[in-house]
Amino acid sequence: MSKLNIGIILGSTREGRLSPQVGEWVKKIADERNDANYEIVDIAEYKLPLLGEADATEQATKWNEKLNTLDGFVFIVQEYNHSISASLKNALDYAREAWNNKSAGIVSYGSVGGARAAEHLRGILGELSVADVRVHPALSLFTDFDSNGKFTPADLHLTNLNGMLDQVLAWGGALKTLR
Ligand SMILES: Cc1cc2nc3c(=O)[nH]c(=O)nc-3n(C[C@H](O)[C@H](O)[C@H](O)COP(=O)(O)O)c2cc1C
Q1: Is the CB of 46 under 6 A from ligand 1?
Q2: Using an 8 Å Cβ cutoff, are 6 and 71 in contact?
Q3: C-alpha of residue 69 to centroid of ligand 1, in Å
Q4: I need a surface site. Which of 7, 33, 108, 125 has the fewest CB within 10 A?
């Protein structure tokens, strides 16, 4: 069976964001497993305007084409006002079928591990028919980043990250049979 394609989606787009460091960490650990094709998918590169505010046919097409190549996702989620970022919500709203019947894991961060944002995302993923898995690495802004914003993850997150990836691949493979 061919390897699944898993997109590691960076949920924030602001200048100075922390998400690229977290995405790179996930990709490094994931690549060492050699069990799927993992790639970082940076929402910022797609320059999606707020949905409905401008003609974004070209950007929307490119975004949907990228999602169509993927069998599952790892969302890098940061907490903004107890929810997900507006840029991630906007990117989610830009596709429908391209999300459907795929699996997803969540890696979140915030003052309480980004837990509130992660739970909001789960509700949205249900509507998009994305099967989000239970295991969820939740990173602390206080202990997993230093005072300069450098990512210094505690070792304990490795177990959760690998457990989450195991579930994303298992469900991703099963759901592929539905598409
Ligand atoms: C508008 C805004 C709202 C935020 N609200 C919360 C919050 O409710 N809870 C929390 O834990 N962190 C909150 N934060 C802190 C962010 O989680 C933190 O800045 C994080 O690094 C943002 O992700 P990013 O660096 O990838 O953009 C907020 C940050 C911003 C910019």
Answers
A1: no
A2: yes
A3: 30
A4: 33
Measured from the Cβ of residue 95, the count of other Cβ atoms closer than 10 Å reads 16
Q: Which atom of ligand 1 is nearest to the CA of 114?
A: 11
- ∠ CA 91-150-122, nearest 5°, is 35
Q: Is the CB of 144 under 6 A from ligand 1?
A: no
- Confidence class of residue 12 from pLDDT cuts 50, 70 and 90? very high
The per-residue pLDDT for range 17-51, each reduced to its tens digit, is 999 999 999 999 999 999 999 999 999 999 999 99
Backbone angles phi, psi at 110, to 5 degrees: 170, -170
Going from the Cα of 6 to the center of ligand 1, the distance in angstroms, rounded, reads 25
The per-residue pLDDT for range 67-118, each reduced to its tens digit, is 999 999 999 999 999 999 999 999 999 999 999 999 999 999 999 999 999 9
How far apart (Å, rounded) are the C-alpha atoms in residues 153 and 160? 12
- Look up residue 92 and give its amino acid: L
